[in-house]
Amino acid sequence: MESVHDDILKTLEDLTSDDPDTRLVHDAKDSGRRNILLLGGGGFLGTTLARLLLEEGHDVTVLDKFLYGNDSLQKLSTKPRLLVVEGDIRDEALLEEVMTGRDTVVNMAAIVGDEACRIDPEATWEINVAAAGLIARTARRLGVEKLMHMSTCSTYGKSDTEMLTEDSPLFPLSLYAESKIESERAIMNETGEGTQPATCIFRLSTLFGFSRRPRFDLVVNTLTGHAWKNGKIRIFGGNQWRPLLHVGDAARAVMGAIRADNSITSGKIYNTGGKNMNLTILEIGEKIVELLPATDMEVENDSKDERDYRVDFSRIQAELGFRPRYTISNGIYELIHALNNSKGLDPEEHIYSNYRWLNSNPAILKSSVGLFT
């Protein structure tokens, strides 16, 4: 496993080189040095955000339970401005300790995915909802200036509306979506517009791409992994719409909010993605076949996944100037490059799927600390 991870790190060095088609480009504008706490900073998005923040000169503390292994930040561990703490966001004393002295908190800690959340609904609610309220209360009490919370466009569920805005009705179809809606409420009930911390919520599109904590349970990544390994992909339904966003672009969106004046972001919810990044599942499959032309694509009419929604991203573009830089094809190419060059990286290994890994190791979700005993 260690040699596989070494190859992953080498691949990421290649992908963040000067190749304009694959590098994780970020804005160079100086926002002033900040002391930033990343909750869940060892995850798929968190590791990417941590690297970009360190490159911009910020002090970064990561608190993560490292459910999927603790080597995702290995390459960054030598950075003098990075502190990594292994622990649980449900531990109130630990949360207060790591948050003290931080001016910015980004909460990415969560059980992510419909199937993963069903493994232990009680733990899901503790981590995704109750801990979110605890984080907001602690941030307010300690005088944190900025608080950012990751939610999901899955909260929209299924809609016939052409483009969904932040004010559109929510229609959760899973425990995961329900928990993220309640997490938004828990956060905003403790803070709200015009109070400190200045709080904003990102409803993220479905992420794709490669990071220091690889995932192959996201639709673009899953289909690319199947095409690369098995030479075929199966599309169920195919006409369902999904908003999509590269993990590097998601990190850039968060950085944009860190730079922004608090009067702009306070109390706001941002659909996070780009207007040209709403695609059907069939269109995703077709783009994969374009880059892996030997792939056999089978389309079946029936789909158990009812999610079907297109999302409007006007607010984040207007207020934060955010536009994605990565296309779906960029991300597929990046994944193929990673699979070709990371020796032993198997997209079907359990560790790269939230559900399969947690289903094999359910005990790691349990907490014996703080409010949650």
Overview of this structure, please?
With 373 residues, the chain is of the alpha/beta class. The protein has one domain: Rossmann fold (3-Layer(aba) Sandwich), CATH 3.40.50. 39% of the residues lie in helices and 16% in strands. It contains 13 helices and twelve strands. The protein has helices at 2-15, 44-55, 92-99, 114-119, 121-142, 175-190, 219-230, 247-259, 262-265, 281-291, 314-320, 328-341, 354-360, and strands at residues 35-39, 59-64, 82-86, 104-107, 146-152, 198-204, 206-208, 232-236, 241-246, 268-272, 278-280, 296-300. The protein has a seven-stranded parallel beta sheet with strand order 3-2-1-4-5-6-10, with helices on both faces. Strands 7-9-11 form a three-stranded mixed beta sheet. Strand 1, helix 2 and strand 2 form a beta-alpha-beta unit. Helix 3 packs across helix 5 (121-142). The chain is globular and about 55 Å long. The protein starts with a helix and ends in a 13-residue tail after the last helix. 49% of the residues are buried. Mean pLDDT is 91; it is low at 17-30.
Short description:
It is built from 13 helices and twelve strands. With 373 residues, it is of the alpha/beta class.
